[in-house]
Every structure is written in C-alpha cells, then in structure tokens.
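Notebook, p. 212. Picked up where the previous page left off. The plan for this session was modest: take the two constructs that came back from the sequencing core last week, fold each one, and keep the raw output in the notebook itself so nobody has to go hunting through shared drives later. Recording the first one now, exactly as returned: residue sequence, then the structure token string.
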Amino acid sequence: MSGFPALVINNGLLSALAFAASNAGSPKGAGYSALGNAIAQHLADPDVALVAANRRTLQDLLEELVRMDSYGLLSCTEETLFFLNYLRRFVKAGQGDSRQAQK
C-alpha cells in the first residue's frame, strides 16, 4: 500500500487502478487488487456516494470511472487519496502493535 498513493498522484486514479487490475494475477498484484476493491467499496458507500452503489469491485469502478467527466474523476481521485491516508494510519498503528508483541 505504501507506493499506491504516489502511483495515484503521479499517474492518475484511472491509470493506478488499471495497473492494479492488470497485476491481479501476480503475487504482489493480489494486494493491489484488494486495495482497489477497498477503494471501490469506499467510493460506492452511501455516505460518500461518488460512484453508483452497485460499483463495489475494482472492475466495476474502472468501468464507472471511464464514463465519468473530468470533475467526477477529480473528485474520486481526491477522495481516494484521503481514504488511502486514512488507511495508512491503521497500517502504521497495526505495525506498532506487532513490534511491541515481538519484544
């Protein structure tokens, strides 16, 4: 997950998600695919509602984003970066817990 926000910033949300989808079969790609599905579920959540509620998978999200106008894509990109920042805090907190458990 650590490199995905930079991938979004440098290449755009649509390209980053297409990369995640294209690498779904590789060992590292499984993580990208899971992250893409989490992003799709977040953007389709009724509280966020940036994409249709039935677009809860990575592939569905890609199809929706391709049809969006630039303003909608920009809104989804911004929300995705906020969401990834939110997730990163939990990953860091979880790593801190495991380090303490190893001591």
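Okay, moving on. Second construct, recorded in the same format:
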Amino acid sequence: MSTDLSRLAWTFVPDRPFGMAPLGSCEQRGPHRPLDTDTRIADAVTRAVAGRLPGQVVAPPIAYAADEGARLLAEPVDDIVGRVRTGARL
C-alpha cells in the first residue's frame, strides 16, 4: 500500500494512521537552486523513514518562509506544531 496520503482515496487510509508531514523552508538558495530545495530534502527524508516503519502515511510537504512578507505561511505551521506537541488530533 502507498504511504503517500495525497494519493490515497479516503477509503484506503488506514484506521488511525500515524502521519508524518515533511516541513521545509521556501527561500532563495542562489541562482542555481529552486526555492523549495529544503522542502524537497525534507520530503525525501520523510518518505525514506516512512518506508521503514509500518503503518506510516506521509502528508503533502509543508513549505514555510521565514521572512516578514511570508509570516502568514508560518502561522499555520506554528499551529500544527503546537497541536502535535500537545497530542491534539489534527
């Protein structure tokens, strides 16, 4: 079964899955790299870990930016991290 949550129909999502969400920044890394380099790396690492652990599903990557103009992107990430820390269900 696929571990990619974004490719699963809801009827194929395991009961009470343990989900992992790749989290990476979206920022300039020079003229030769895409803006989502860190997000791509986080996605690859998350998928590698999920492939070794049973019952894991991988959510679509969450890209965030740290500059003042992208603060609206960081707020949902802070909310998700806070919920995970307290054990709340998303």
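Notes on construct two before I forget. The chain has a mean pLDDT of 78.
Flagging for discussion at group meeting.
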